[in-house]
Amino acid sequence: MRLILMNVFSKAISASCVTAALLLSPLSFADDYDAPVAKIAADDVVVTNHRATINGERFEYTATTGTQPVFNDEGEATAALFFTYYERQDVKNREQRPLLISFNGGPGSASVWMHIAYTGPKSLRVDDEGFPIMPYGVKDNPHSVLDVADIVFVNPVNTGYSRVLPNAEGEMPSKEEQKKMFFGVNADVDYLADWINTFVTRHERWRSPKYLIGESYGTTRVSGLALALQNRQWMYLNGVILVSPTEIGIERQGPVEAANRLPYFAATAWYHKALGDDLQGKDLTELLNEVESYTLNTYLPALAKGASLTEGEREQIAAQVARFSGLSEQTVLRANLDISPRFFWKELLRDRGQTVGRLDSRYLGIDRDDVGDSPDYNAELTSWLHSFTPAINYYLREELNYVTDVKYNMFGPVHPWDRSNNNTGENLRQAMAQNPYLNVLVQSGYYDGATNYFDAKYTTWHLDPSGRMADRIDFEGYRSGHMMYLRAEDLESANNDVREFINTTIPAAGEAAKYESK
Prior knowledge:
Layout: E1 5-6, E2 23-24, E3 37-38, E4 40-41, E5 44-54, E6 57-71, E7 77-88, E8 99-103, H1 112-115, E9 122-124, E10 138-140, E11 150-154, E12 163-164, H2 175-182, H3 185-202, E13 210-215, H4 217-232, E14 239-243, H5 254-259, H6 262-271, H7 277-280, H8 284-305, H9 311-325, H10 329-334, H11 341-347, E15 355-356, E16 364-365, H12 379-399, H13 424-434, E17 439-445, H14 453-463, E18 473-478, H15 488-504
Parallel strand pairs: 8-11, 8-13, 13-14, 14-17, 17-18
Antiparallel strand pairs: 1-3, 2-4, 5-6, 6-7, 7-11, 7-12, 9-10, 15-16
């Protein structure tokens, strides 16, 4: 079964193609004639064979690329989800082989980022710090975790080549119907849990140890999926990996939200050599330990006091916040000690005529002028789209042989997104409590200003307030940003951390999933 392009001059279509009811048309035309429309099959794959040398081992693997339907309660296909599934081939006991299920975020982002830059067998062709170089494309990833786990990269509805399907009458659901079906915190988790069940069943992976990995909003997704898979599909996991996590429903507001930014501000200022000589001379982690202690013990209580601070206390706090953030005392005082991230990205290097990136503050931008309270654009995102977009379009078509005229959505139309009733953090906690096998790894970049690393630490502290599962929650930090794996050194170390997490969370032979009496 192959992908097709229909138009008025089309030749007879092969009998192997799916029926029109299972074809997706993302475009519509007011004209009466049969205009050319790109369509994609709801259930169709291409399999290719490859070799890799990863973590010092050489082996063969297959890449299964294509679509698998989302089914409703009546068994009708409502969407086609595009995925790529990598399987190592020299595996004797597939039931013992871990399966890693990977999601990116947005919401509305394709799986491209981690697929061709992090855990997959290919990595983006960029320089050692993650900046674009030509010719665009991918190269072998010797640090991929494919040596220890098979991996499936999943694109939620309207991302990548995934699309909503028409009903049996050929009609597309309304925008409001689509939102209820797919575009919200809980709708997203519900249909993806069903899709994973189908995938695991089709590929005979029910006995395998299973892991979810999500980046950014993908951490909200996989946190919710942990409980949904467990309590609705009876599918139990060994691990959940949160890469650059969102708040996952664990609220950080007011003074906590403001105070938690300071360690990130310090890391970014240190990177750009905007601190005083005494701080600049310290190693980053040494500096951050000092700033974190100040944040929790002094800055947070001061912000909580608000207007009750004396003038002397206010000036003392402003001086120290300025010292750690690279901003001036006067600027901190004018902001009432509460610095917004957008202002920081504009202000830190204003005197140099540069802005810093949001998702990765190592990246620099140039604005039209130096006034204002926020940058004109996100310097890091333009750089990433510069290199990722041509690479994924080339890789899927020319190396994985998946040919279609449907546009690959780096960011797809999924808004307005229903963010109500976001209890995904609590869902993850409950899944861990019910499943003694389930462990969590959190990975964050120190220069990420969108989902900052200290917020991620805060999340690990409040994911299980009792502290009784603290030994099953690990945190790792990296000297890069939101996509820490774009930096060559962190591509290796972050994959090694995932590899170790997988290897150490598979229970020993005969080890039962139970709590011991104390």
